[in-house]
Amino acid sequence: MKNIRNFCIIAHIDHGKSTLADRLLEVTNTVSQREMQDQVLDDMELEKERGITIKSHAIQMNYRRSARECEGVQGSAEEYVLNLIDTPGHVDFSYEVSRAIAACEGALLVVDATQGIQAQTISNLYLALENDLEIIPVMNKIDLDSAMPEEVADEIVDLLGCKPEEILRCSAKTGMGVPEILDAIVDRIPAPEGDPDAPLQALVFDSVFNPFRGIISYFRIMNGTLKTGDHVKFFSTGREYDADEVGVLRLNMEPCKQLSAGNVGYIISGIKTSKEVRVGDTITHVNVPCEKPIEGFEAVKPMVFAGVYPVDTDDYEELRASIEKLQLNDASLTFEPESSLALGFGFRCGFLGLLHMEIVQERLTREFDMDVITTVPNVQYKVKLTNGSEIDVYNPSGMPEPNNIAEVYEPYIHAQIITKADFIGPVIKLCMDKRGILKNQNYLTTDRIEITFDLPLGEVVFDFYDKLKSISKGYASFDYYINGYQPSKLVKLEILLNGDPVDALSTLTYVDNAYPIGRKMCEKLKDLIPRQQFDVAIQAAIGSKIIARETVRQVRKDVTAKCYGGDITRKRKLLEKQKEGKKRMRQVGNVEVPQSAFLAVLKLD
Alpha-carbon distance 170 to 142, whole Å? Predict the structure, then answer.
């Protein structure tokens, strides 16, 4: 055990985590030159396309130091087993980071030498410190002309309270300084603690569904030893299984006979149903079980809720199975069944943010071949009724009638924005426009400022992040956490097509924003809804009050084309006949709302 090191790499987006992981795998010869590619751990097609890490990826490396390099260092020319977990950097995937941190004793905190410390750097650092991890600060991209190593080193010293000489400098792209990082991992990160002879306690930190082998669970053994063929059980469900295969996670899964305390590995036990495996569960032996489970992770709290419906209503059960399999691999996704008048049966899903929602929708399409419609995203509101009771409202259709509502409370977030001093004016104006309350301003350096705001979450989930990036030319970084509920004036904005409400397009919004949003939605839908044989009235309404209207004009056939000359009454007779037909058609006509209309409403400026 003294030769095992478990560590993760944490950083803000685009600070070079995955590239550094590539170099570590190269230097330790874990990946051959033939298998080597950029972002080798980002194995999802979506990750490579977007250039972001969505999932945490675990991999084991073997590192041998020569005796000459180890003079005066205990455990000289020994071989070390390094278990690395590469984590995402986006705020929407912070739950992945918290799970990776729970399986480690140390973390490499990577900071970009050209950009300095950003919001997610601080957030991930606090996560690591809460778990008592040993932090090794690494300054990346020092080979670039725009690097500011001295200024960034001062920022890291202020943040961590470490000495300047403890900060490692490297270039993950060229490989400069990477061997020193490996030495620091061995010297500074403590070996895992645990008793290999104690009853088995293994923490499940991730799982994946394989159509041929069932569910594969990834675990970290805290105490005890797990062998192939052992009779094990999962603590929370009490279900018993045989460990058909146990092994370590290298580039591919490598089976081995046994794993003991301190190790990270995988177990295949022929589990077919996804409900039987939970992230944060404990695996133990059936014969000699441990007394109590390991404390898992905090239950995830979804921030954004949206309805996910199959395009073809017959695919409902298939969609349920797909979401369950996806939830195995993405434990921050929550869902429950719901139905809609316009869209039929589907699920109300909870996401950590808008990017998370987009990624889940994309993964359902690519990995499970499911065509889905996603409704307008909402957050969770608390409604106090006139009879004194309180209910939670996840979507507009659950909102009680206005005469039954005493008060509505909406969730607020505590947002940290780090930006260059040049953009402070536009950033504050953006937050004020979103009903934000300025709490604090703090200059990190002469040119960089940290602004703290309290903002309503409902204002942030739509386009806040995109606008923040635009006005700051990509420099501002943003991190947040939920900060309780506050009373608010909210109204339910409904969209009516020919007098019938489309519940998938209805939304809860602040009273002052209802008029401009209603008008924009009507204008957008007018462009997107195809013309019918009859007029389609698009209306935005608050209760019984119509606040905006657009009309999609009917497609008319020229019924008088066959008349040439003759009396006007012949033409009039044909037009009257057409008018009667149009009236009858309007009574039975059904307006199809295309998927592009639902998506366009999300992208309203």
Answer: 6
Q: Which residues pair with 409 in a beta bridge?
A: 382, 487
Q: Which residues contact residue 225 at a Cβ distance below 8 angstroms, ignoring those fewer than 6 apart? A: 196, 197, 200, 258, 259, 260, 261
Question: In terms of pLDDT, which residue wins out, 245 or 461?
Answer: 245
Could you tell me which residues come within 8 angstroms of residue 585 by beta carbon, excluding any fewer than 6 positions away? 533, 534
Q: Which two tokens stand for residue 286?
A: 């059936």
Please give the structure tokens belonging to residue 9: 């790499």
In the chain the domains, ranked by start, together with CATH numbers, are 4-188 (3.40.50.300), 201-285 (2.40.30.10), 304-375 (3.30.70.870), 382-488 (3.30.70.240), 492-602 (3.30.70.2570)
DSSP H helical ranges for 108-215 = 119-130, 149-160, 178-188
Can you give the pTM of this predicted structure? 0.73
Answer positive or negative: Cα dihedral of 394, 396, 397, 403. positive
* CB burial readout 564-579, b (16+ within 10 A) else e: eeeeeeeeeebeeeee
Query: Closest by alpha carbon to 243, among 222, 264, 213, 223?
Result: 213
Bridge partners for 494 per DSSP: 541
DSSP assignments along 438-459, one per residue: EEEEEESSSSEEEEEEEEEHHH
Distances (CA, A) of 291 to 196, 224, 239, 283: 16, 13, 16, 12
In whole angstroms, give the CA distance from residue 167 to residue 170: 10
Q: Which residue has the higher pLDDT, 152 or 92?
A: 152
First CA to last CA across the chain, in angstroms? 56
- Average pLDDT for 285-311: 78
Q: What is the mean pLDDT of residues 511-517?
A: 85
Average pLDDT, the chain: 81
Q: What is the C-alpha separation between 271 and 241, in angstroms, rounded?
A: 8
Per-residue b/e over 425-463, b at no fewer than 16 CB within 10 Å?
ebbbebbeebbbeeeeeeebbeebbbbebbbbbbbbbbb
Tokens linked to 11: 């950083």
Rounded-to-integer distance, Cα 310 and Cα 287, Å: 45
Tell me: the pLDDT tens digits for 259-275? 888 888 888 888 877 77
Neighbouring-strand partners of residue 500: 497
DSSP-derived letter for residue 504 is G
The burial class, CB within 10 Å (0-12 / 13-18 / 19+), for 145 is exposed
Alpha-carbon distance 201 to 219, whole Å? 10
Burial class (CB in 10 A: 0-12, 13-18, 19+), 67: exposed
- Check residue 487 and report its DSSP letter: E
Planar angle of CA 445, 447, 448, nearest 5 degrees? 65
What pLDDT, on a 0 to 100 scale, did the predictor assign at position 239?
A: 80
The Cα 549–Cα 573 span in angstroms is 32
